[in-house]
Amino acid sequence: MIANVLNANERNIDKYKARKACRKPFFFIQYSDPQFGFTNGEKYDTKPEEELMEKSVEIINRLSPPFVIGTGDFWHHKRYDPEMLLYKKYMSKIDPKTKIFNVPGNHDLPSLEDEDQNYYHTNFGPSRFSFRHERCAFIGINSQYYWPEREENEYEKEQYEWLIHELESAKKCRFIFVFAHIPFFLEKDDEPEDYFCVKQPLRNKYIETFKRYGVNAIFCGHKHKSFVGKSGNLDMVTCGAIGLPLGGFHGMNLIRVFPDRYDFNYISLDDFPKAIEKNTLNLL
Ligand SMILES: [Fe+2]
Predict the structure, then answer these.
(1) Is the dihedral of CA 58, 64, 65, 66 positive or negative?
(2) What single DSSP character describes residue 75?
């Protein structure tokens, strides 16, 4: 038998496996902006964030999602080891059964200068990711390559090519989710530009690309307040902060993926469910 050519029965088994995988619901958690050292600013006092991150890790370990995704601003002061190491310390408290994926925020990677890039990459490895779970695609990108810039640059171009490649190979996935620190917009794709969102013309470039490839939702942070927006069928979900809120409350996003739909809820760290029922994903 020629390798890679399956007989009819094997093909059916393969399809059956794929369909079965499709029916399995799952959930995951997105968190953003724990930002050690932000609440008390110049005092370099991280006590408030330590308490909040402790609480967050407790929730993650209690619910035990297959993975969590952190969308940046893990610490506050530029290249400041004590704050950066605190984030690492709390990552290590997350049960290894739960995988952790990170993309950098503007405080983790304040510029594209070598010193800043090396600091992030040395401590956290690549600043983007792409993986599959239950036939859904999860793609994380480094928004520092296109914010606060307006123009394409060598890093942006290289990452964009990589993104297109990843989106091409995700075409057959049930759902495609993208993660980044800076939101493309908060509520409407034509809202005025400000510090908190991607600027034009790059905003449109990415939104059009995501729509062309059937991306379902983008999950970001940076605003320290939860927002939900839409551009056509594309959901733009901005997660509030674990750390200091700038409106709203400390929380994380709980995302549930069912066979035929998904939903997302920004939940206060004080109100997270005790457990999640595995088959129905009901909150208990
Ligand atoms: Fe932040």
Answers:
(1) positive
(2) B
CA–centroid distance, residue 203 to ligand 1 (Å): 20
> In this predicted model, what pLDDT tens digit does every residue of 82-91 receive, in sequence order?
999 999 999 9
Strands 67-70 and 26-31: parallel
H/E element, 8 = helix 8-23
pLDDT digits (tens, 9 = 90+) for 193-217: 999 999 999 999 999 999 999 999 9
Distance 250 CA to ligand 1 centre (A): 12
| Residue position matching structure tokens 């942070």 | 221
Give the C-alpha separation, 238 to 229, whole Å. 8
For domain 2-268, say whether CATH 3.60.21.10 is its number. yes
DSSP class of 130: E
- Residue 216: both structure tokens together: 């379902």
**Within 13 Å and on the Cβ side, how many CA atoms surround 166?**
23
Q: How far apart are CA 270 and CA 56, in angstroms?
A: 10
Query: Domain spans of the chain?
Result: 2-268
State the amino acid at position 79 in one-letter form: R
What the block records as the tokens of 9 is 């029965």
CA of 160 to the centre of ligand 1 (A): 24
CA 69 to ligand 1 center in whole angstroms: 15
Q: For residue 14, how far is its CA from the centre of ligand 1 (angstroms)?
A: 44
